[in-house]
Amino acid sequence: MSDPSIAIQNAIENELRGSAVVIGAFDPSEPRIYTMHPSMSPKFPHILIGDDQVIGDDTECASSSEVAVNVHIYAREDTPANSRLRAKAIAGAVRTALTKQLTLDGHQCDDWVYDDTQHLTDPDLLTAHSVVRFTYWTTADA
pTM (2 decimals)? Predict the structure, then answer.
């Protein structure tokens, strides 16, 4: 059995890259979506899929998991206020794109929930940082 977090990470990336609402929130720049931290000098705005946790929920009949996922959005515009607005717009688009049943490789997405969004300011006081949290429940394919 493969780790369900891999299947979910891949599905999230596919959903975000194919979402018209996410692409529209980046306008006019090209969506930058990463599964690991970008270079030391990243272009803004960007999305980082990461920080997940897998909790086993196995039964005698099935290998099931609860997977909590954080999707980070970073924006840096001409002013801190505009950075915050851009991060919030992208976070809303991410929520719209991912509050759904995902198609997973090697697993079934049994249920899902949008948990919350937190809007932060990074220590540089210029970069807005939003964290959108989801939980997905999966069962491994037999």
Answer: 0.92
Q: Output the CA angle 90-49-68, nearest 5 degrees.
A: 105
Judged by phi (left if over 0) then psi (alpha if -120 to 50, else beta), residue 125 lies in left
Q: Cβ contacts of residue 70 below 8 Å, gap of 6+?
A: 50, 51, 52, 131, 132, 133
pLDDT in tens, 46-72: 999 989 999 987 666 778 899 999 999
23: left (phi over 0), alpha (psi -120 to 50) or beta: alpha
Domain positions in the chain are 4-140
What pLDDT, on the 0 to 100 scale, is given for residue 58?
Answer: 67
Which residue reads 């999707």 in tokens?
Answer: 71
Class of domain 4-140: alpha beta
pLDDT digits (tens, 9 = 90+) for 106-124: 999 999 999 999 999 999 9
d(CA 11, CA 14): 5
